[in-house]
Every structure is written in C-alpha cells, then in structure tokens.
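Task card 7
Instruction: Convert sequence to structure tokens.
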Amino acid sequence: MESARDILLDATEVIIGRAGVANLTLEAVAQEAGYSKGGLLYNFRSKDELLGSMVERLVSRFQELVFRKRKEYQAEGLNDPTIRALIDVYCMVAERRLSHAILTVSADRPELLCRFRELCFEIEPLIESEARDPMMAFIVLLALDGLHLRHALGIEGKSQEEIGAAIAALRALLISPSTGRVQAAQNSGYCHVETE
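Output:
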C-alpha cells in the first residue's frame, strides 16, 4: 500500500505532466491526491520540499533501475554494462517521465537538481572505466541525452519504429564500435519503446 507521501508525490507528477510546474499549487496537489491541504502540509512543509522530494524519488528509482540492469549485464559478462543499462532504461516510461520532470523543474528551481547531477557524475566514470571504446560510449551517452531532451521538450516527428531503430543503432555501436555500424544497427532489430 502506498504511503501518503507517495500518493502526494504521484499527484505532483500528474499535475506537472498535465499543466507544468508553473501551474503546480499545493491546493491542486491535495485535490488530485484526495487529501486536505493540511494533510499535504503535514507531509511536505512547502512547495519546494514537495518538488525536491519528487525529484529525489524519481532519481532514486532511475538509479535503482540502471544499477539493477547493470548488474544483470555484468553477470552475463557483457561489455559496457552501464551504458547498456541506460539504453534499456530509456525504453521505459518511468525514465522518460524523469527527463520531463527534470527539465520542467530545472527551468524554475535549478537548485533542486543537485541529486540528479550527483548521479550523472557517479555514472559517467563507470561508463568510461568499462568501455572498450570510451569515446564511442560517450557518443552513445550524448545520443541518449538528446533523445531524453527531445521527449521532454515534446519534439516528436519520429515514429516509435524510427526511435526504436535509433536505439538499436546505439546498441550496435557498443557491439561493433569500429566496423559496420549502420549495417549492424539495421540487422539488430528494434527496441520496444514503451508508450504512456
């Protein structure tokens, strides 16, 4: 059973996704969650605390998913386990929700993003230390960042199949970093990208 805090944070995510952080009010969150404003304030003393807790929860979930997948790839003896895990997590709805929330919150309250930056600084050295080709791994990371940003900004224009093909190409770059990159991607199949 979800805690009161989780129910209120779920409502916060819903409102930000629907109307943006500028239209987020404590009253709206309380109403969305089915709580009184007093009940909300019992759990979160301010809007800033609410937003900070939302970002912290999203980042923690993201971190848990990435490191769980990384461990699976390590157990299989595959190269580049961290960047592979990041690719997998990008295909999940929760990760794209994180990118949208991070962008939305950063526009209004950049100081709340310290935890996300800390995680990035933790992950990037892992990617570099594991990589057979560190520059190629960095290029794949930059491409994932670009995909996240496009989604967060609502830049569509590509079908799910095309996005899947692009992600398959990123996987192929890790498998075959120096030869046959495009051909390998074309033959590797599509990544299924979850939709909301």
